[in-house]
Model the fold of this input.
Amino acid sequence: ELRRMARATLKALDVVATTVTSIADLESEAAAFDAVLVGSPADEDPALAAQTLADMLPAGVRIVRLGRHGEAGRRRYDAWIPRPVRRSALEGALVVEEGDSPAQAAVTAQGSSSPDAQTDGARTTPALASRQADSMPRVLLVEDNPVNQRVALRMLERIGIQADLAKDGGEAIEAAAGNEYDCILMDVQMPGIDGLEATRRIRQDRGPTRRPRIVAMTATATTEDKQECLAAGMDGYISKPVRMEELKSEVMPSDAV
Done:
């Protein structure tokens, strides 16, 4: 019930939510999230759970406890929200700066969680260090959806890549003509010039000797869709929601993955 309420509230806030059944299940995908919402099983030590998450998650990921009344360990979290979860309380707990909210969150465990969120301030651990710029691929992200833009850009940042952004196919063609990209992450379904047509034009404009890797990003994943992407000149295919390891394997040099 708590999980359902939390997901419904996140959806109303246009936040992409992923449900996992335990904290341990987060480890392989920890870098993909901007925030983690933690339930409160009766047999769990809240302070220990907070420490486990802090050790596991990259710097800057907010940890929000959907807690029980009277439980200890609240100050170990960036925010504590009692049940029932209210939209205003959850939004207040997740927003760090005015106008800024997470694009992707994980909801973990069961548990039960008064209207107001109680916050104790965000952790101020240093940002994850980037690799040397000359060893990283130059990436162009082509995506028209603002939420998906933030998710993908944040994931790329966490592997050390500061990507350029094009908001539609026309911008992608222009950016590719004026820059030397190693990889272009191309949304397929966009208004106006879609990803398939943009790929065809980029291939035509740049010729065979100046060929960036172009990887499709789309929610559809049929064999026919993949064949259509390859026929347009794309080199790879990533299904949405994007997984960190899959993204990394597509954009990073093989010796850096």
Remarks:
- The CA atoms of residues 189 and 195 lie 6 Å apart.
- Residues 96-101, 109-133 have pLDDT under 50 and may be disordered.
- The longest strand covers residues 62-67.
- The first helix runs from residue 2 to 12.
